[in-house]
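Re: sodium ion structure - here you go.
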Amino acid sequence: LALESELRRALEEQDQLIPYYQPFVHAITGELVGLETLVRWRHPERGMLAPATFLPVAEESGLIVRLDRYMIEAACRQLTRWQLSGQVTTPLALHINLSSSNFHDPGFVAWLTQLVRQHDLQPGTLYLEITESALIDEPDTAAMVMAALRKLGVRLALDDFGTGYSALSYLHRYRFDKLKIDRAFVSEVDSKGEADAIVRAILALAEALGLEVVAEGVETEGQLRRLSEMGCHTLQGFYFAAPAPAEQLDWSRLALP
Ligand code: G
Ligand code: G
Ligand code: NA
Ligand code: MN
């Protein structure tokens, strides 16, 4: 309960919830092609908190809806700053995690429409990451909201792909733009033959369905090489950069072997 009221307060201030950004890197050119926004809470007494410590409370209390809006707004403002400072001159995929609670929030689409206009966001800039479990509760509402988002030029990424219990039925039922291959597979690419086979199958599926792909959790040069050989060219993971606050982001071409 203490954490809940503290989170409520944090949402009203500007310096407690901090967006961290983790790059997506092009496997061949080393260029930064996208960013995932991940929330951190700089708690005045408890120190820096990871999402796992407070997202459950945010979900249970319903505060997650405000938290997600807070993060979307913060990321859009940051993108504008980067564009004004000349750090971002080419299209960049800005990813934000979206909890399923937003699908039940009747004001969400109107709110986002307003934000897209206000920031003059070009279609294909903003991606919302959704997990399969987010689609389970109210599938029809989710489908309606997703269709409205796509009309706005907001894209949808299926997060943690391959770990849910019915991944393929979700691809069939909903229209996504991008798949994020779960790091459970990526971490074993280059060491276990089965993981290679699964990643190959996911890439073939994505190509057939016209979906973009990001491999998450890339930690080694070997994984980078393997993924690149397989034709998976957008990579995210500690090998390139950990999530970091905006001012610590390294915009230089990330070194590749
Ligand atoms: O950064 P880290 O690995 O600790 O993130 C853990 C999880 O928290 C991720 O799976 C991510 O989906 C979730 N998460 C991080 N930031 C946000 C956010 O702003 N909104 C929502 N809904 N989930 C987030
Ligand atoms: O569920 P989601 O995929 O959104 O979670 C992203 C989480 O993965 C973040 O908490 C982030 O800190 C973490 N992460 C990012 N890159 C790596 C990596 O290379 N290895 C591991 N183990 N975790 C990573
Ligand atoms: Na995510
Ligand atoms: Mn993921």
